[in-house]
Structure formats: C-alpha cells, structure tokens
Request: fold
Amino acid sequence: MAYPTNFSAPAVYVRNDAEDVADVVRCLEGDHAAFEALIERYQRPFFTFAVRVLGNRDEASDAVQTAFVKVYENLGTFDCSRRFFSWAYRILVNECLNVRRGQRPSEPIAADLVADGSPHDDAERTERRRQVQAAILQLPIEYRDVIVLHYFNGLAYEDISETLGVPQKTVKSRLYTARQRLAAVLLPWTTQ
Amino acid sequence: MNSDHDDRLDHLLHELGPAEPPPDLVSAVMARVDSLTDRGARQTSVRTNGVTLMTTRKAMWVLAAAAAVALAVFIVTGFPKVDRGTEATIGAAQRYQAQQLTTKDVVVGDTQIQEFLQSETFDRLMKDDSARRLLSNHSVRVALSNPELVSQLTNDAVRVTLLNANVLAAFADSNLLNQLSQGIADANLRLRMVNDAALSGGVVAHILADANMVAALKNQAVWSALTNADLRLTLSAGYAAAALQSPAFVNALQSPAFANALASHLADAQLSANIVSH
Reply:
C-alpha cells in the first residue's frame, strides 16, 4: 500500500565534513560569517531534534540557541579529526536533557508543533501528527533520541552511534524497541 | 511487526516530518555570540590531531610580549653560544650534504594542490588504512612537507632505512648517534667500526655495514627527519611500515604536489577532513 506523504524534502542529512572543518577554522580565525554558515547548515536538523524530543517549540528554540552558543564557546576544544556535526549534536542532546529535567511530566502538544501549515493540512492529519508526537514523547529518552535522529534527521546507525556515544549494536536494538513501542501505541489507533 | 505494520509506522513517522526552525533563530544565536565575543569569552584554540593552534589576539599578544622580553634579555646578556659536543654529529652530516631542494625549487600553486587533493592518487592514499593513519600524525605531515625528504622517500632504501630498528635506536641515543655520525663521515673509520666491535656498538656496526643505509643517512633531510623523536616513535609502529610499503603511498610520493599539499595551510583542513571521512 502506498501512503501519501507531506514530506517536502528528504530528511536525509547530507554530511559536509570538509566544509564544516573549513568553517570552524575560519571561525577560530575570527570570521563570524563562518559560524553563521554553520548555524544555517544545522539549524533545521537541530531544531527538528529539539522539538521532537522536547515537544515544545519555545523550549526547543531556547535549547538550540543555547547549544549553538555552547558550540561557539567550545569551538577551541573541537578536534578537527572528528565530525563536527556529531560533536555539535552531542552538545544539543545534552542541552535537551537539561531542559527535560526542568519540564513538567505532561504538557499539552501545541497545534503549531504538528501542523505543517499547508492548505491541504486537514484536521484528521493534524490529529494523527499530534498522536505520533505524543507517542514519541512517551518514549524513554534513550529511545526517543534514536527515533528522532534516525527518522527526522536521517542519520545512519554509524552517525547515531557517534553522536550518542553508544555502540551501533545498541543503536539498532534501541531503534527496534522504540519502533515496537510506537507500533503498539499508534497502529491500533490508525486502524480504527 | 509484519511488513505492513512497518510500512504504516514509517508512514506515520514520515508524516510528522521535520520541523521548521523559527525564522529569527540564526540572528538570535548570532546576537548572543556577538555579546560573547565582546566579552572575549570564547576559547580560541583548535586541536588538529593533538596539536593545539592558538588563534586569539590574546595569545598573539602574549607571544609577542614573550618574544620582546626574550630579545631584550639576549641583547643585554648576549646571545647564547651553541653547546659543545654536537659539532661532530652536525658537522659529519653536513659534510655530506648535497645541494638540497627547497620549497622554492618546487613551485606548485594552490590550484595544483587542489587538483592533487581531488586526484585518484590522493583518493587511493586516503583509502589505504595504514597510509591514512600515518598521515594523521602531525610529525609525519610536517616531515613530509619537505620536498627533499619526499624525493628521497621514493627510494626504497631510504624507506627501509627510516623503518630500521637499529637506525631508530641509534638516533635515540646520543652516544650511538655520535658514533654513527663519525662512521658515516669517514669511510676508513667506518670500515674499522664495522670490523672492530670495540670501536662501536653492535647497533651502529650493523647500520654502517649496510651501504644503502649509509647512503640514505648521508642525506640531510633524512638525517634531520630522524632526529625528531615523535617521528621516530611513529616510524616504529607497525602501520608506519605498512604505509611506507604501500603502493598508494609510494605512488603519492611521486606527485610534486604531495609535499606542498602537506605544507599548505589552505589544504590542511581539507586533508584533515579527508583523513577522517574515509
């Protein structure tokens, strides 16, 4: 069965290792535009991660901003032999964990978090997205991370492993469990 | 989960999709970064394969101040004399120096460096695990930025000499190094040292008995490279031997842009990235 999708662009993250390193070097040499280029490049995957993990646009925006500032503050400790995006992602993941510690256990999911704003976005689809976002937020954080990194940011197992600092085997296992849990919650509902 | 369940779950997740960041996110971050820069709060050094490059104005001022103080001290107290005891070592090696190549002799523009970095030769080099590991070492990259050493390394005997355990041991010991230097400088003494164990240690005698190694060590670039302890440590590793013998590495050595690429700051970032991404 073919399912319609509202995907305007693939979620697959395209690696820019050489470009990243060049921008980091330029930034350390005092070129602000180079850091702006890094933010432009990663703001979408970073925000997607934060919003899907935190379930709140304002908190996600704050977390992403703070993560980028921390990236800037610590650029001097970045080892150019590693991948910039994994290093920066890790800072974001930690920042989101910090935000989560201060979150109330269950907050309502705002409509703008799940609506795509397109004219074809009907109430049913919006409700479906709300359910999916709610199901993701119900997952333990270690499962939520892998689901978001894999499905919404298109990271491969290897990249998720490097970003989260866990073996690839663990990534696969968490992804499998996360999918099982999501299926248990979502599939009965979608067949109604 | 069966295949249909998989498909439906994938669809639901994809339908939720990525989220668009607020339009002012970049400007908000840059405003915070600007305020940080005004306070000079950012750590501004970058690590590349373990080497820290200080890039702040603060670091430059500190270095400039230190240099000025050192210069003032030398002007007042006189410049230090070169220590005695090294003349034989340096002199012997220098006596056999041929006219050396310098970076001025091999002029390769940035375009050629870029062409080399995008060439099949470079690609093959980066796909060779041992070569990639070797080139990720800073001491190696500094040493190989010398076109003369690169030129010498195209000779099998030179590569064998650099990897030889006796050679590495001799350069790590000042007494052995002194004996080696004298033996290389004087053919008659060399012959006697090879035949009379009392005149030199077994390590040195073994080296001097090998005409290829003697010829290699007469080259200043080779000799100078071996005086670097970090480089010797790297050369003693198994992957270094594999790299220096790999066709990909030997092939890259033939390229005139190879040494310049390693010496080029422009290419450094790209080289680092290629070393990582393969």
